Amino acid sequence: MYKLPENLGSKYAFVSTASSRAEQLQTGALPRTKNPEGRKLTIIAQEEVATGLVQAVSTEVVAEETEEAPPALDEEE
């Protein structure tokens, strides 16, 4: 386990961010670390988050983006 970065407030935020990054790596994103060959994607993701190569997205930013989405059409009864 890597040291919890200061910019993340909790272990949950670290694990959540690393999990999201591991999913990105699995779907084809390129690793940002040196020599990723032969290492599991989860370990690469944890290293990227711990070293600051990947930043966590604030839940406030996500909420703002969803508020800006066009409203859904109401179904007629």
Automatic annotation (TrEMBL):
Record EC number: 2.7.7.6
Record keywords, A-Z: DNA-directed RNA polymerase, Nucleotidyltransferase, Transcription, Transferase
GO BP terms in the entry: DNA-templated transcription
Gene: rpoZ
Family, per entry: Belongs to the RNA polymerase subunit omega family.
SMART domains: RNA_pol_Rpb6
Superkingdom: Bacteria
Molecular function GO terms recorded: DNA binding; DNA-directed RNA polymerase activity
Any one GO cellular component localisation term in the record: DNA-directed RNA polymerase complex
NCBIfam families: rpoZ (TIGR00690)
Catalysed reaction, written as an equation: RNA(n) + a ribonucleoside 5'-triphosphate = RNA(n+1) + diphosphate
UniProt xrefs under SUPFAM superfamilies: RPB6/omega subunit-like (SSF63562)
Protein name, entry field: DNA-directed RNA polymerase subunit omega
EC primary class: transferase
